[in-house]
Structure formats: C-alpha cells, structure tokens
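Hi again,

Forgot to attach this to my earlier email, sorry! This is the prediction with adenosine-5'-diphosphate bound. I've pasted everything inline since the attachment limit keeps bouncing my files.
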Amino acid sequence: MANNILEMKNITKEFFGNVVLKGVNLEIQKGEVHILAGENGAGKSTLMKILSGAYKLDSGEIILNNEKLEHLTPISALKKGISVIYQEFNLIPYLSIFENIFLGKEYKKGLKIDTKREIQEAQILMKKVGLEVKATTLVHELSVAQKQLVEIVKAISNEVKILVLDEPTASITDKETKLLFSIIKDLKKENIGIIYISHRMDEFFEIGDRCTVMRDGSYIGTVNICDTNEAEITKMLVGRDVEFQRLHNEVVDYSKKVLTVKNLFYKKLLKDINFDLYKGEILGFAGLVGSGRTEIAKCIISDYKKTSGEIFFNDEEMSSRLDKNIENGIVYLSEDRKDEGLILMHNIVENINLPNLKQVANPFINTIMMSKKSKQYVKDLNIKGGSINQNVVNLSGGNQQKVVIAKWLYSNASIYIFDEPTRGIDVGAREEIYNIMYNLITEGASIILISSDLVEIQKMSDRILVMKEGQISSIIKNSDSLTQEQIMESAL
Ligand code: ADP
Ligand code: MG
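Structure tokens for the complex follow:
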C-alpha cells in the first residue's frame, strides 16, 4: 500500500526453544496512531525490540519506506528513524537532559562539544512538548512523566519516522496523559507513524486510528478503530466472548464469622471501622484511592500498628506480629507487586518458595519438591514465560502477578486479602485470577477484595463495603439489580 511507511511481515522469534512470535504482521501508515494490543506475554514488546534492533529476528521482513532493513542494530534503527520508548526508559540518570538528548550525536565546535548550542536546541525541543524545566537538569531529578517527555524529545531530535510508545500511561497521572495525547496528535500532523501499546481499552478509542491484535505470539488481525467496538477487540484479544457474569457464591456461610473488626482506629486515617467477614465470603472493598482500604488491610495483618480497636480471627484476638498472622493463615497480596511482592532478579521457583521455606526445608532444602510445586503452580495458574527457571523480571505484568498469587496460595491460608489484584492486567489473565479466587472460597477460605474497578467489585463480591475518607459509609449486599451509581453514591 502506498501509504505504508513500515511493514513488518511474518516475523518469528524464539527464545531457547520457546516460540514467542509466530509469523506476526504489522503495517504502519504515515500519520496514524496504530494500537498494538495483546494480553500480557502476547509478544508486543518482543516485536518492538526486533523493530528497534535490540533483538534479532529469526525470520521475516522489515520494510521501511520501501527499503528492506537487514541486520538492524539499535544504532542503525535509530538512524533510519525508528525510536522506541520503553516502559523502563533508556536515559542516563546522572546526565543532564540535553546531554541525554544529544548523546551519540553531539554538536561539535572544533574538538569540543558545543554545549551552548545543545542547551539552546534542547530548550526549543522541550518547549514543543511542554517540558518546562532547564535543559541542564539532571534526569534523575525528573518525574516519570517528565522522563517520558525527555524520551519523546530525544526521538524528535532524531527525525523520527516511527515512534513506539510501550504502555506510556501505565505510571503517569490522568493530567499527564492528556498532555501526552496532545503531543501525539501534533506528531501525527508531522506524518510520523506512531505505534501505541496499551492495555487500556478506553485509550484505544480516544487516540487510535487502527488496531492490530496479537495473541500468544500470533497475529490475529487489524481493524479500523472507527469500525470496531470493545466487545470485538476483547474477543480478538482473548479468543472468545467475555461476558459480564456475576459470581454466584454457593459456599458462603453467614453463621461462621472468621474475622471481626471492632472499633478500629488508625492514626487519622481510619475512624471507627466495624465489620465481619464470613467463611467462604468475598467481601469487596470499594471507595476512592486514599479512602483507607489498604490501611484496613495492613492493620488486620499488623503491618501497621492500630491506634485502638479489636480484631478477632476465629473469635481469638489477633496477634500484633505480622509473621504470626501469616503463619496463622492470613495473607495480604500487595497492590504494589514490584516493590513488595516479588524479587525480580530471582526465578519463578525461588519466588514461589520463599515464603514457604518451612514446608520445603525440613530440615534441608528440598529442591526437587520446590521445582515440582512450582511446575504445578505454573500449570494451574497458566503462568506464561518459558521455564520455571526464568527470572521474574522477564515476565509480563500479568504473569508476575500470578507468581505473587502462587507464592501465597502455597501457604494454604484461610483469609486472603487481595489489594487491586488485576490492576494493569489484561482481560484473559483477569478471568484466571477470578477463577483462582473462586477455587479458594470453595476450598474454605474467605477473601477481602480491595478494588477500584467497580465491574470487578460487582462481579465478585457477596457484600460490598464502601469506604469514604477513612470511614465505612455503607455495607451493601450485592445483587443483580445493584448499579455502579449506587455504589459510587456511598463513596462520594
Ligand atoms: P508483551 O509485551 O506482549 O506482554 P513480551 O514480548 O514481553 O510480551 O513477552 C512475550 C514472551 O516472550 C513472554 O512469554 C516472555 O516471557 C518471553 N520473553 C521476552 N523476553 C525474553 C527474554 N529476553 N528471554 C526469554 N524470554 C523472553
Ligand atoms: Mg510488554
């Protein structure tokens, strides 16, 4: 097609026998925002790393402006006008903004670098994207959103033809997202082809022109955004229809309290919290971010020391020691899996077994049992990422979350507190996490589900506890007729 600037044809790639791209196609036109969609582990980042020369392709073709690109390296790809902005960025923290921008293509004055000119030019480019700091600022002093803007400036300083943004809004605020979108719209006018990777379906419709969907390393198809809808894209993503269906919990036993929280106060953040959790129940915690939901969880497990109040587990006062509570079977799955949940540089086996050493080290560490258990969880939870010896850092977000869940499932607890378990996770993996929760309650556990996703709260909860500014504003029995508006009313 005449308008294509980029064509990737039939790209394949394997890592140590694990085929992660199985003949993927991608065509990008001038001035379009092309959404690249796919669940965690579908192969999007790998495809982009091939485009940027970071990985070598096994077979297939890359054609840029009718020229076949061979033996791409990160430097040659950049020279051809291909810029990829990764989630983890590619900036040198202890250099200034302008030094990062002109790294490898410095302006020279005689033998010396012409810093004055670099600073001036950097400042002009920075203004274009609304980055209002000094070009001499060190990169490590910048916020995530500002670093992203530096990356964009770096790209446009290179006469970029193809700009790839890999989940650019995953860790920036809504306001920063708005700015990013207006920059993207400007770049479109300059005929740059933009490849946009995201999990947020609302963004596809806000910013996208076309969308290519990948699944399990395969090319599924390309659609025009104006001719499609969420249901169609979801079906392409997961390979089947996904409907909203409320969980019908037949195991909850309202005659058996497993947890009672009485008059709980914590600093100025929680005021007089009272509720019960029953055997087999999923109790949803709704409310705005900052309304105190995570604080309740942390007070229950004694990660935070409550100011006053009582907490009973099976009618016995809970220990004030975190480790004792874990041992007694109350676990908290953090919302911040990168900081609290996982040791990224360790492999799947080590991460799953770490909190469960009492079971596998009796008295000697039983590595065979560790591998066997890990393999079972990888299978049960459908953790994708090659082998159990894969370092967790190489797994996609959804699969990392499943490793967090696996390590706590292993502990056979009776109360699980899930804090935002599906944030940043795609539809298919979400369903698997819901299935895991269902299996837990049928095996006799109880669950507190903290979530900002009201669809998730409605789908999974038996009762919904709504928090507002550190207090419980209502506890609602879930039903098919309950609306999101009714829940929100209590939260606002
Ligand atoms: P996505 O970006 O769509 O979430 P990725 O491209 O990151 O997916 O991953 C696709 C698959 O390739 C995953 O199973 C992942 O574990 C695997 N993978 C990615 N990079 C490497 C690597 N350097 N070594 C081994 N496997 C990898
Ligand atoms: Mg990725």
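The mean pLDDT is 89. The radius of gyration is 25 Å.

That should be everything now.

G.
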